[in-house]
Amino acid sequence: MQILSFNRSKELSFRLVTSIFLVLVLFTGARPAFAQDTNSIAVLREMGKAFAGIAEKASPAVVGIRVEKTVTSPYYTIPDWPFGDRSNPFDDEFFERFFGRQPRSQQRSPQRQQKSVQTAQASGFIISPDGYILTNNHLVGGANKVLVKIAGRSTEMEAKVVGTDADTDVAVVKIDGNDLPYLKLADSDKIQVGEWVVAIGNPFGLSHTVTAGIISAKGRTGLPLEEIKYQDFIQTDAAINPGNSGGPLIDLDGKVVGINTAIIGPGGNIGIGLAIPINIAKGVQQQLIGTGKVVRGWVGIAMTQLTPELAEGLGLAKDTKGVAVSQVFEGSPAEKAGIKHNDVIVEFEGQPVESDNEFRNRVAMLKPGTEVKLIVLRDGERQTFTITLAERPLEGKVAAAGSQTIEKLGLTVQNLTDDLIERLGYKGLKGVVVTQVESGSLAELSGIRDGMLIVEVNREPVSNVKEFEKAVEKAGKDRSILLLLTDGQYARYVILKLPKEQG
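Predicted structure:
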């Protein structure tokens, strides 16, 4: 990873002073650009004191974490680090996604597989006086040994891994102790874009480095971190570098709003850091401490986020917000409660539903057995359903297969045969199988893949190629086709806008 600069206290001061100076200039009217303003300087001093106070109180609860892990490597490496332990932060792609690959001064050609113990350094923070610590799963998951360094102590303490959760990238470890300094947890749902925050951690082994910035955005999802299934990141420009991972993002009240987790960029800080909202971490932490594992609530539906086109296709106003139920799983809580496909969920537990990711996260944060209320639109009418959540089952995998063409859409479909039913897992279903998707076509751009089963066209069931072709032709006037597809596990809607006829 290319390292352009290191964050020092001077950098913090310079960035802070510069930012606040620009704000003050906007509100002080037509003064000379560099005129001394006693009141402005006093404001800057007070702001600086506020950050200093936060850092002074919070730093004792922020710990350095050093992890040892056995890895299998196809080559020999002689790492060359500018700081800290002369070692590689685990030679696996997932770990690299968060820390970046450090430069190697020398690599020998692959000769044989070898096992070696390697180490990495990052951060964590104490959340209770008896020594529970929050950090990242990608750091401590699968580790042989976890060592914790507390400020002011010359020796490291070995920590026990209480539990890890790869789906949120949250982990809990514990050290022995009483009356340890700890950080209180905020309500991350209440933070607003533009609020000041402080990040504390151990970038490049430089312990208790403090940086400040603002909340740049909330609810970041769809990032290329496939291992983290429940994404709802806080984005900040407070400098986060390799080694900050697992450390706290703190508000002006000195409470933790997030766990610093990833950076976007070529490897070092470019002002785009990501933190796991502490509200997500709270639920995970409580389960890990209580049982050592995480179980999640499950409604039992496949869903598609409502777009203006999809809303119109379902006979709703274009500005309707919610998620469309594209499939109700057999025997699921949703089926038992009477939810049907084509229902649109608009409220969950009294709160509006605006995205599929948000809805899934909110359900997953609840324990199985929890009773929840949904408000859905069915044929334009609001209906209320009470559902008792079940435990979310493990996700499985999909299959695929191969012929008849609908040129306008760029795909080929085939009748569902007994062989395809068995191979693709479509027992009890009706529809046509997508056997080929043309590269660059409307179908491919909409996410349709080989092996998917098209169940409905414009809300009408199709059971063979003839019915499918007829339904596509019927789309005619508005040139818009609403497809309901499934891969055998999950169903979703796709809107295809046909090109206009050439005259």
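Summary: The domain at 297-391 is CATH 2.30.42.10 (Pdz3 Domain).
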